[in-house]
Design a protein that fits this description.
By secondary structure, the chain is of the alpha/beta class. The chain is built from 13 helices and eleven strands. The strands form two sheets. Strands 8-7-9-6-5-10 form a six-stranded mixed beta sheet, sandwiched between helices. The chain has a five-stranded parallel beta sheet with strand order 3-2-1-4-11, sandwiched between helices.
Length: 331
């Protein structure tokens, strides 16, 4: 069984409600039908119901099983969500009228549904850039109690099984933060370890990557990774975390013996934490293109309740797969 099919099978065990705020996008409509047909989740589509029904008919789709809500309509549900928006943001100067106007935006309406427990998670980004998806999520759902930063992880499925967990690696942050300090880097490591355990049911072995291994180079960037490693260990002592490690020392047992002989992580890492977005984004794409790995993600992590961001070039399958992952994050 491949990883994605495994996610779908696990997701079917839950009756999770996932809100898709871009309901008027053809790919979202097609994905919603597939999600319902496969029993992955209950779907809440946001948009003008008459437009959605008409477009679904044109595409020969049956969306009768989906709940459809129009954020532009003045309903009791919208009024309740607008009041929640006011409660969450009035200290930032938002009055009730501004809260009502924001709630007419499907992205705010969707995240407020998640914040209120009316939906278990949200998937968006097919028609909106990442910043527009994350902004309402950070304002309404916010991050977990001990996490201040949202990050993006990729699950990399390699064609050969000698690296990681039988060919599976989890890599972060590859999608969100251009630069982070040592505290944030530690939080990213812990979020990624927890997601690895939750989604893949494997014990995370976390390598904090650098151009140095255990003091082989001296530089402020190396010191940052070392401090982050110590912080991450204190935050999550249940996980194996080590750094700083060069990527070959993290992955290759023979190299680990010479470069980091006393490390419990070196040579067997299945989670790679990059020191910045440049290296993370470059790294996952090199593995994807040169090694022929399948890249699953980005999976957003650190939010108190799950919100995931699609690429605007996403396929229907991408939407379905990310919904399955969102279901697992919510449970």
């Amino acid at each position: 069984m491949d990883i994605i099919e495994g996610f779908k099978q696990k997701a079917r065990k839950f009756n999770s409600r996932i809100v898709l705020p871009e309901g008027e996008d053809d790919r979202i409509l097609q994905a919603a039908c597939q999600i319902m047909q496969e029993g992955i989740a209950e779907v809440i589509l946001l948009g003008d119901e008459s437009k959605l029904v008409s477009r679904a008919r044109d595409l020969d789709l049956n969306i009768a099983g989906c709940q459809v809500i129009n954020p532009a309509s003045e309903t009791e549900e919208k009024a309740a969500l607008a009041e929640l928006m006011y409660e969450l943001r009035h200290h930032k100067g938002i009055d009730r009228e501004k809260a009502r106007k924001k709630t007419s935006n499907p992205l705010y309406f969707g995240t407020l549904m998640v914040a209120a427990g009316k939906a278990d998670g949200m998937v968006a980004g097919a028609a909106n850039p990442t910043g527009r998806v994350l902004r309402p999520a950070l304002q309404t759902i916010k991050t977990k109690a001990e996490i201040s930063i949202v990050s993006g992880a990729f699950i990399m499925v390699l064609p050969r099984d000698e690296f990681g967990e039988k060919g599976v690696l989890v890599m972060s942050d590859c999608a969100v933060n251009p630069e982070v300090n040592d505290e944030e880097l530690a939080e990213i490591a812990v979020s990624t370890a927890r997601n690895t355990k939750k989604l893949l049911d494997i014990d995370p072995v976390v390598a904090m990557l650098s151009f140095s291994t255990h003091g082989s180079a001296r530089h402020p960037l190396v010191s940052k990774v070392r401090r982050a490693t110590n912080r991450a260990r204190k935050m999550a002592p249940e996980f194996e975390i080590d750094g700083e490690l060069q990527v070959d020392a993290a992955l290759v047992a023979e190299i680990a013996k010479s470069k980091a002989p006393n490390s419990l992580v070196a040579g067997r890492a299945n989670v790679l934490i990059f020191p910045d977005l440049q290296s993370g984004n470059i790294g996952y794409k090199l593995i994807q293109r040169l090694a022929g790995a399948e890249a699953v993600g980005p999976i957003l992590q650190g939010m108190d309740r799950p919100v995931n961001d699609l690429s605007r070039g996403c396929s229907v399958d991408d939407v379905v797969n990310l919904v399955a992952i969102t279901v697992l994050q919510s449970n």
